[in-house]
Amino acid sequence: MNYKMDTASHNPKLTIQFMKSDTPAVTEPVFEIIAAKGVPVEGVEPAEVLTINTSFMPLWESMQAKMKAALAVVDDSKAARRARLDLVPVRTGIDKLRLSLNEEAKRKTKAINGLAAALTFDIETQEKRLLDIEEAAARAEAARLLEIRNKRMAILTPLITSETVLPQNVETLTDEQFGNFVKDQEALNEIRVARAAKEKADKEAADRKAEEERLAAEAERVRIAEENARLKAEAEEREAAAKAEREAAAAKLKAEQEAAAERERAAKEQADKAMKAEQARADAALAAERAKAERERLEREAQAQKEQQARDAEAAKAKAEAEAALAAERAARAKAEKEAQQARDAEAAKEREAKLAAERAAAAPDKEKLAALAVAIRALTVPRMSSRRAIPLMGQITDAIEALAARVDAAAAAI
User: Fold this and answer.
1) Chain centroid, CA 415 distance in Å
2) Do 194 and 101 fall within a single domain?
3) N or C of the chain: less Cβ packing under 10 Å?
């Protein structure tokens, strides 16, 4: 059924054409009011349009006559009042008809909604029942996978370390894949245990060696301290002997001076006794004696001073020789300690290099595994997307895969 606006005549009319395969089209002008006012009826069934048009037809005809009379009034107030009052019943009638038709439409809409709701309830009930069946199967599958994961994680937990890279979904692995993964982890753990044992043994050996070197250094320090104490005691002993010699020489000189003074006193007494008899001879003899005693005293003092200087020179020489010997010994000891430290440093560097080489050799399998993992990650193929919102994700996922592979490469290079 098609309907169209007929614009060939002066008064446009909305017409309905009944199209049949065995009869010609029949055109009936039935929508005069709706066509005249240009009311949009797209999407409304023609029967409904016809009902609306027919309902308003009596009021439309009355309105046409009274509108014609109203249009004829120009400046007559009484005629204008009559024409206006004649239009009021038409207007209120149109409004009452509008309300009546709307109420009927509301009742129809309510009936339609009620029937649709009843039918929808029956369908939704079945949908909920069927969804419960679907979700029950999904829940059972999830419970099965969770049980598998718990059992497998119980096996893996003793084997997991900070270096372990677990598969993303342990529960979805085949038994063969999971068994191979467990074997790999057990082999890695054996390597880690052996490496830890070796590191422990190397550390204990290094600790023992360090303790031996410390004890040897302590013994050397004690020996040097004892040697220094011995040399110091010998130097102090030589200094004490020299001091005793100086004190003995001074005492001897003092005794000689006192003896000379005593002889001088005796001679003076003797001279005094013989003074009167041999004053002239005594004075001469006394002067000669005094001169001689003075010379002897000066000679003795000079000799004592010379001997003291010789002893001081000998003591200074012995002290210088002792200090030179001590300095030479200290230099030799410092040189020996430096050479020993250099030897220890060279040995430690050699041990560190050997340890580093061993660690690299032990880490080689892990490095190869990480490299293989990076290759496997890069081999992942991003499925082709067709929707507008999913297409940009292809590039993002590809970048994420490459970034993950680069991180695995960096981790392999670091070990």
Assistant:
1) 19
2) no
3) N
Tokens of 138: 């999904």
Cα(261)–Cα(381) distance, integer angstroms: 127
Same domain, residue pair 22 and 67? yes
CA distance 375 to 36: 78
pLDDT reported for residue 5 = 36
- Asked if 15 and 32 count as a contact pair (C-beta separation under 8 A), the reply is no
Q: How far apart are CA 414 and CA 360, in angstroms?
A: 10
Residue 399 included in any domain: no
pLDDT at 96 over 90: yes
Structure tokens given for 4: 């169209």
Count of structural domains, the chain:
2
Q: Are 14 and 6 in contact (CB under 8 A)?
A: yes
C-beta of residue 382 within 8 angstroms of C-beta of residue 394: yes
What is the distance, to the nearest Å, from the Cα of residue 193 to the centroid of all Cα atoms in its chain?
Answer: 28
Distance (Å, whole) CA 29 – CA 168: 75
- Compute the Cα dihedral for 368, 373, 376, 378 and give only its sign: negative
Average pLDDT over residues 159-164: 73
Cβ atoms 382, 398 nearer than 8 A: yes
**Residue 403 domain-assigned?**
no
Q: How far is CA 49 from CA 5, 102, 311, 344, 375, in A?
A: 13, 14, 152, 111, 72
One domain for residues 133 and 239: no
Cβ-count burial 261-281 (b if 16+ within 10 Å, e if not) = eeeeeebeeebeeeeeeeeee
Give the list of residues 6+ apart from residue 65 with CB closer than 8 angstroms, or none.
none
From the DSSP assignment, how many helices (H) and strands (E) are in the chain?
6, 3
Q: Which amino acid is at 1?
A: M
Other CB atoms within 10 A of residue 102 CB: 10
Cα–Cα distance measured from residue 235 to residue 30, given in angstroms and rounded to the nearest whole number: 148
3 state SS of 5: strand
- Enter the pTM of the model: 0.27
- Asked if the structure places residue 404 within a domain, the reply is no
**Residue 280 in domain:** yes
The predicted-structure confidence for 189-201, as pLDDT tens digits, reads as follows 888 888 888 888 8
Within this chain, do residues 48 and 115 fall inside the same structural domain, yes or no?
yes
What is the C-alpha separation between 302 and 310, in angstroms, rounded?
A: 12
Quick: pLDDT tens for 12-56: 333 333 233 343 333 333 456 776 676 777 777 888 888 888 888
d(CA 363, CA 255): 93
101 and 221 share one domain = no
Same structural domain, 108 and 186: no
